[in-house]
Design brief:
Elements: E1 4-7, E2 10-13, H1 23-29, H2 35-51, H3 57-91, H4 97-126, H5 133-140, E3 155-156, E4 164-165, H6 201-218, E5 221-222, H7 227-232, E6 236-239, H8 246-251, H9 254-267, H10 277-293, H11 298-309, H12 316-330, H13 343-359, E7 365-368, E8 391-397, E9 400-411, H14 419-442, E10 450-456, E11 459-469, E12 472-482, H15 490-515, H16 522-530, H17 537-543, E13 544-545
Parallel strand pairs: 5-13, 6-12, 9-10
Antiparallel strand pairs: 1-2, 3-4, 7-8, 8-9, 10-11, 11-12
Organism: Paraglomus occultum
Protein name: 4381_t:CDS:1
Region (Disordered): 133-173
Length: 559
């Protein structure tokens, strides 16, 4: 360990460094390093951290070193930006590119040495950060620049052709390719969570998160292909059966994901609710007769009303019979062309009538359509970004909406082919669900499970969102159904009712949690400690690629 620090040509004792530890100690110990050495150090630390197991005692020390190295590198980049014009003006006076390279490299070394002197503390204290290493690399390939690499001297230029860069692998300044992930974004290892068969889900999920973060630093994550990785950075494990990304399958086997999915549904007390044999037979009989006749006649109406009179008003059987009666009265006999239907038309004419009976529970909840601002996501609101879900489930107390407990998004048939937009909706309801769950847990509510759904055209996918363990949120697909848009589509809809009734039970459970079970127990006292921060909007915009491409393959199916 060096006792002195290099400040240009002047040597000062390390005790004179005003930087507080650990960054001050880190600078002191590496004061003699060149900029080339510093970049090699970044590469080595990143490689070591990727290979280490997070339970290793050296992992935390390596993580701190890497964070300090990135911080100081950003400061150095800020210093270079301040001196960029002066450097380029000086370089323009040289007669040859070789001389410019040599002189430019010397200038950057001098600046780096000066940075490791007294100015480093001032810049660090001011909180100024630099650009991303990816931007530095991009600028390093340009001319005139003090960072021009010898391996890139020869380029082929054409009137209509892009520049072709040749790299012989001998560049004296190796640049890591990173996007501007904020240096304060850290992944905190969750506490061990061992399942019944000995599988530690926390350990594997944390490795998956680190892999997702590494992907984000190499290139921005794409909404078409990396939905699960985007959500993993907000500590959410999304499981849709048989729709896993290759990155997920590198860490979890498909059978393991199916097992976690089953355990997660059991934990939130979800199960499909099949109809009674008598009711199912009645629904099939009525649906067949309505499809055959093509109209809603008096005989069908009388039969439905007679059966309704025999049921309890709040029973599931009465709910189904009332729904069939409304659909036969208000829906067309045969499907119409909905390709030009807007989102609002789809909601008001079809979805609200079919979905509302399954998500509302008496007078305690209210289904709110559409585009209503979410109150729990106000901290994530930024200019140019909406926080209005297409649907929210509001909890009502004394005629006032006092909480939110569910969300939904809708895309009409016209936009089902837009994978980018549909996946963005899925990410949105996941982020809203996490914000809602965090808000409810902080208020002391026991074991909340947030019901979520996404409608794309005729298809409705339902999800449960819960806090499974320390730092692990589970978003599980509970089922997908095809919603009827005409009387002739009622018969196949009978088979899907069990999934909707199971989803109705989730909506009823969250209502029960909010209505009276607010007393904390021993397990509940741990829940606030299990919470993790959501990726902020600026961080989200830095992680996610805003560009669209139909050529990108998506593992998530929306139709």
């Amino acid at each position: 360990m060096s006792k002195y620090s290099v400040q240009s040509t002047k040597v000062i004792p390390s005790a004179a460094w005003p930087c507080p530890p650990p960054i001050g100690v880190f600078i002191r110990d590496n004061a003699g390093a060149t900029w080339h050495d510093w970049l090699n150090l970044l590469d080595a630390l990143e490689a070591d951290l990727e290979e280490m197991d997070f339970g290793d005692e050296n992992w935390k020390k390596t993580q701190i070193k890497l964070k300090n190295a990135r911080t100081l590198y950003d400061v150095f980049q800020a210093e270079l930006e301040k001196n960029e014009k002066c450097i380029e003006k000086m370089l323009s006076a040289h007669g040859s590119m070789a001389n410019a390279q040599d002189k430019g490299f010397q200038v950057q070394q001098d600046l780096f040495g000066n940075l490791l002197g007294k100015r480093s503390a001032d810049v660090l204290d001011s909180g100024r950060g630099g650009r991303s290493l990816r931007q530095v690399r991009q600028r390093a390939m340009g001319s005139p620049s003090p960072f021009f690499s010898p391996g890139d001297e020869e380029t082929v230029e054409g009137d209509d052709e892009e520049e072709v860069e040749e790299d012989d692998g001998e560049s004296p300044i190796p640049m890591p390719l990173l996007v501007d992930i904020p240096s304060n974004y850290e992944l905190v290892p969750p506490a061990s969570c061992v399942l019944a068969d000995g599988f530690d889900i926390a350990k594997v999920f944390f490795k998956y998160q680190r892999h997702a973060l590494a992907l984000a630093r190499q290139h921005k994550l794409q909404l078409e292909t990396n939905v699960q990785e985007i959500l993993a950075l907000s500590h959410t494990l999304l499981i849709k059966p048989e729709q896993h990304t290759p990155e997920m399958l590198c860490h979890f086997e498909e059978e393991r994901l199916d097992h976690i999915h089953a355990i997660g549904l059991e934990t939130v007390d979800y199960q499909s609710r099949p109809l009674s044999q008598d009711l199912e037979a009645l629904m099939r009989n009525v649906s067949k007769r309505a499809r055959a006749s093509g109209k809603f006649d008096r005989a069908l109406q009388t039969e439905l009303l007679t059966n309704i009179m025999d049921k309890e008003p709040e029973s599931t059987d009465a709910l189904i019979l009332y729904l069939w009666l409304d659909i036969m009265r208000k829906f067309p006999a045969k499907p119409t062309n909905l390709e030009r239907e807007s989102e609002g038309d789809l909601v008001t004419s079809y979805l609200a009538l079919v979905i509302n009976p399954f998500v509302t529970s008496g007078k305690q909840t209210r289904a709110v359509w559409p585009n209503t601002a979410s109150t729990v996501a106000h901290k994530q609101k930024t200019v140019g970004r909406a926080r209005q879900p297409d649907f929210k489930l509001a909890y009502v107390h004394q005629r006032q909406e006092v909480a939110e407990c569910g969300y939904g998004e809708v895309k009409p048939d016209l936009k089902v082919a837009d994978t980018f937009a549909c996946n963005l909706d899925l990410v949105r309801i996941a982020r809203l669900g996490k914000a809602c769950l965090d808000d409810i847990v902080k208020k002391g509510v026991n074991g909340p499970v947030i019901p979520l759904f996404q409608v794309t055209g005729h298809k409705m996918c339902m999800y449960s969102f819960s806090l499974f363990a320390d730092g692990i949120y589970l978003m599980l697909e509970t089922g997908c159904v095809s919603l009827p848009m005409a009387v002739s589509e009622l018969l196949p809809f009978v088979d899907d009712l069990e999934h909707l009734l199971g989803f109705r039970e989730l909506c009823s459970n969250i209502t029960n949690c909010l209505s009276g079970k607010r007393v904390a127990n021993d397990d509940q006292n741990k829940l606030p400690k299990y919470l993790r921060k959501t990726l902020t909007t600026p961080q989200f915009e830095q992680v996610v690629d805003k560009t669209k491409s139909r050529k990108r393959k998506s593992t998530i199916r929306h139709n």
